[in-house]
Design brief:
Number of helices: 9
Bound molecules: adenosine-5'-triphosphate
CATH superfamily of the largest domain: P-loop containing nucleotide triphosphate hydrolases
Helix content: 10-25%
Protein name: Molybdate transport system ATP-binding protein
Largest sheet: 6 strands, mixed
Keywords: ATP-binding, Molybdenum, Nucleotide-binding, Transport
CATH architecture of the largest domain: 3-Layer(aba) Sandwich
Number of strands: 23
InterPro entries: AAA+_ATPase, ABC_SmlMolc_Importer, ABC_transporter-like_ATP-bd, ABC_transporter-like_CS, Mo/tungstate-bd_C_term_dom, Mop_domain, P-loop_NTPase, Transp-assoc_OB_typ1
GO molecular function, one term: ATP hydrolysis activity
Radius of gyration: 24 Å
Strand order of the largest sheet: 7-8-9-3-10-11
Strand content: 25-35%
CATH class of the largest domain: Alpha Beta
Organism: Arthrobacter cupressi
Length: about 350
């Protein structure tokens, strides 16, 4: 069943999107972008000031002039999984998971049977007799997933479910989620591009409460149009106006006002807004302007140097180059050094914004 949401929460959110039946949508964006507000509005924990929220034929929220329609959280058919498992401490794991089917009227024995099925689904059947206080963070979170699913929600909402886990527990939960989210309608807020890659069909990028980019995961990461998505994809991104030969970079950034040539992909029309994307590994760093070859030479000032996967990542504002430690030492690079970032036109992907 399709989930449709148009929600305005003053100063926090102004967004419209849908989740198709069986689709998992990852919501990404910088801190304070409004991701949690979006989930809270879907769950019924925050009341929008305008818009409408529908799950199939059911109207969960509507604000039409003076009249308001509002369905409380427990009647929405949605389940919210938070960063913390929030299990009932006085109940066993089994009874935590049996809680929703029991509340929905299933007899005790049947509700426990349902709970066992969901615990098996999240690889936690062996934990059935424990109390929440006897679980690790990862175990508790898997039980919380089972508890959410046992309520048979039509839409599952996940708010950074891996955020509070250590690096060993996160991969196991991610594998469990990959299994249970398949063919299930879900919205997952995350900071981690791996979650989007492994769990989602589509990405929505939020910035300052608004959607700046959305599309299939592969498309957004392969051809990002927003600075945030480019960062997720590990690409340098320049925005500007498409020219017959490339892109005239706009803005006050490191390459603002410069012309960049690249390889258009058919959609880039001269005069229209466009972007140029290239990986830091395609950028060479020179102290002097190199001669000859048809390359882009961007004069920039280094802002920061950091180790990155066995190389040195050289930052110049929003641009980055990856070079070997030997090359960095030989060039004597440090913050403030004026250099040229050089990238071959063939390595620069150009497309419409
Ligand atoms: N209860 C609240 N009342 C008023 N404003 C709030 C409330 N909670 C959050 N905000 C503000 O709303 C905006 C969006 O916050 P939100 O928590 O939704 O962002 P987020 O994308 O989830 O951020 P993060 O990634 O840091 O969790 C922020 O400016 C925040 O300060």
């Amino acid at each position: 069943m399709t989930f449709r949401m148009t929600a305005r929460v003053h100063g926090r959110l102004d967004a419209e999107f849908t989740v198709a039946p069986g689709e998992t949508v990852a919501v990404l964006g910088p801190n304070g972008a409004g991701k949690s507000t979006l989930l809270a509005a879907a769950a019924g924990l925050v009341k929008p000031h305008g818009g409408s929220i529908r799950l199939g034929d059911k109207v969960l929220f509507a604000h039409d002039g003076g009249r308001q329609h509002w369905v409380p959280p427990h009647l929405r058919g949605v389940a919210l999984l938070a960063q913390e498992a929030l299990l009932f401490p006085h109940l066993s794991v089994l009874d935590n998971v049996a809680f929703a089917p029991r509340s929905a009227g299933e007899p005790r024995a049947r509700s426990r049977e349902t709970a066992r099925r969901w615990l098996a689904e999240v690889d936690a059947l062996d934990l059935a007799g424990r109390r929440p206080g006897q679980l690790s963070g990862g175990q508790a979170q898997r039980v919380a997933v089972a508890r959410a699913l046992a309520a048979d929600p039509e839409l599952l909402l996940l708010d950074e479910p891996m955020a509070a886990l250590d690096i060993h527990a996160a991969p196991q939960l991610r594998r469990v989620l990959k299994r249970v989210l398949a063919r299930r309608s879900a919205l997952i807020v995350t900071h981690d591009v791996l979650d989007a890659l492994m769990l989602a069909d589509r990405i929505v990028v939020l910035e300052k409460g608004r959607i700046v980019e959305e599309g299939p995961v592969r498309e957004v990461l392969g051809r990002p149009r927003s600075a945030f998505a480019a960062g997720l994809a590990g690409l340098n991104l320049l925005t500007g106006t498409v020219t017959p030969d490339g892109l005239l970079v706009s803005g006050p950034g490191a390459a603002g006002g410069q012309a960049v040539s690249g390889t258009p992909d058919g959609e880039a029309l001269a005069g229209e807004p466009g972007v140029a994307a290239f990986p830091p590994s395609a950028v060479s760093v020179f102290l002097e302007l190199p001669h000859g070859s048809p390359r882009n030479c961007l004069p920039v000032a280094i802002t920061e140097l950091e180790p990155h996967a066995g190389r040195i990542r050289v930052h110049a504002g929003e641009l980055a180059a990856d070079i070997t430690p030997a090359a960095s030492a030989e060039l004597g690079l440090e913050p403030g050094t004026q250099v040229f970032f050089v990238v071959k036109s063939a390595e620069v992907q150009l497309y419409g914004a």
